[in-house]
Amino acid sequence: MKSILVYTLFFMSGLYFGQINNIIDPEPAINTIHKKYTGNIIFLSKAISLDSLKEADFLTQEVFQEDKDLNLRIFLNNSLVNYLHQLEPSLAVDELLKKGNYQFNFYIDGTLIYTENLNPGAGTAEDKKKKTTFRIPLISSKNEDSWGRYLWMRFYLVNGGIDQLNEGNHLLKVEIKPYLKATTLKVGNTIASGEIHLTIPKKNISEQQIAIQTINPNSGWKVSDEKLDKEKIRLLNKKIAENRFRNITGIVVIKNEKLLVEEYFSNSARDSLQDTRSVGKSFASALTGIAIKEGYLKSENQMLKDFYDLKQFKNYSSHKDSVTIKSLLTMSSGFDGNDADEESPGNEENMYPTDHWVRFTLDLPATENKIGKNWQYFTAGVVVTGDILNQSVPKGLENYAEQKLFRPLGIKNYKWQYTPQQKPSLAGGLRMRALDFAKFGQLYKNKGIWNGHNIIDKSWIKKSFTNYFTNDKDFEGYGYLFWRKVYRVGNQSFEAYQCSGNGGNKIIIFTEIPVVMVITAKAYNTSYAHSQADKIVQEYLLPAIGN
């Protein structure tokens, strides 16, 4: 009798605690395949509904092609929110979904290559409350709008997957766990895993694609005869030809003011005008320095109220009166604008459809952030900088840039992007040849001197190449519309200040070695654009040129 009572209490307590562990009732596994493969990840070559799915559709081995569909079908015995609840029973559903999601782990040949704690915003709340099976397109020939595609891209192109999946046979394994980041990161046990044998075919690359390109005459530069590790450049060219670095259009290296490397790809050539997007922002910095040098602006500490009647714009506050040109150059003006936040009122994507970009910016509300202290990427602020220049210099910004910057540098072929008022936009989009972008970089390397003429004051270069945000250990730094970046090769570190634009475009000016590099690319709006540019510099160009 006693044993029956104990069993009954145990059984009832099991039900009771089971109810606590499931904060929401998940969808039951009623499909035969789902029941049989709970806890498994299945690879598929196409999108197949659960009702139509058969075991014959499962992929266990495949010849891998980057343009061939690859899907995952996940089979779980619970929904995500319940797994998260087990990690932190005290949190409500909404809090769990704000702070957690799935963790994906990618293994190749038994080695963990990449781990990602999926952004809590990925996937719908309803699915995460209920779903126990779902499909993830990793590679989609139809370009399905899915977080899975971007997850795969980050694994494959940003974090080494493409390098590990080289020619030959490999085992790819994917493993999923729940994670929750409240006060600390909590990761649960594996809730599903699966693997597939992949054969990576050989890519037929010609010697012409690998060979170092000859520097033709009339480049505008003296040609360097310095040492160059040609094998490193050949390996770089091979990787670009194999599409392991992708959408690269040009690479130029200047050492000791002479042209050492000049390479073009993707149907680009010496005279191609490269669309380098936000690289053009750094030209706003240069032109501001020139205008101060010539007395058209008093200093970068001048305030917006010197140029605009701010009370005529929306959301006026005294904060706006104190916004300086310097705070616009350092992206710390305190306007409610952050291009990294889609919900930000001042996000640049909200600006472009309007008919007056300057008014859009000055209408924005101010935040409580102290001017000059909090950095956030704010394209619209650079548009205002351009407008201040346009109204301050003689004959307007376009003429001034031609007379004071482009003509002295011998830059003849270039193309502006314009604002709706048909004024040059310093937000980005300035196009010119890679060799001419290199001239701009070398001007800064020369501390403002070009062919014996002082174009930009040395003191302005020093201010531009100063990191104004040293308190943030996770941020390498920012100057006057120049990014600070430290490249690492072995145990050596190479500090640089650089112009940087969407797609992986760079003008890199090293501070301690006599080198300027230009990388032009059109990998726009991809997660791998900047990381592959960094790899090109760290793993190929710096080792190739030595010190």
Question: What secondary-structure arrangement, pairings included, does this model have?
Answer:
Elements: H1 2-21, H2 32-36, E1 41-44, E2 61-63, E3 70-75, H3 80-87, H4 93-99, E4 100-108, E5 111-117, H5 125-130, E6 133-139, H6 147-158, H7 161-164, E7 168-181, E8 185-187, E9 192-200, H8 207-210, H9 230-241, E10 248-255, E11 258-264, E12 274-275, H10 281-293, H11 318-321, H12 325-329, H13 348-351, H14 357-362, H15 379-392, H16 396-406, E13 414-415, E14 431-432, H17 434-445, E15 449-450, E16 453-454, H18 458-464, E17 483-489, E18 492-501, E19 505-510, E20 515-521, H19 529-545
Task: Describe the structure concisely.
With 547 residues, the chain is α+β, with helices and mostly antiparallel strands.
Q: Name the shape in a single word.
A: globular
End-to-end distance: 86 Å
Secondary structure class reads alpha+beta
Given as residue ranges, the uncertain stretches (5+ residues, pLDDT < 50) are 1-20
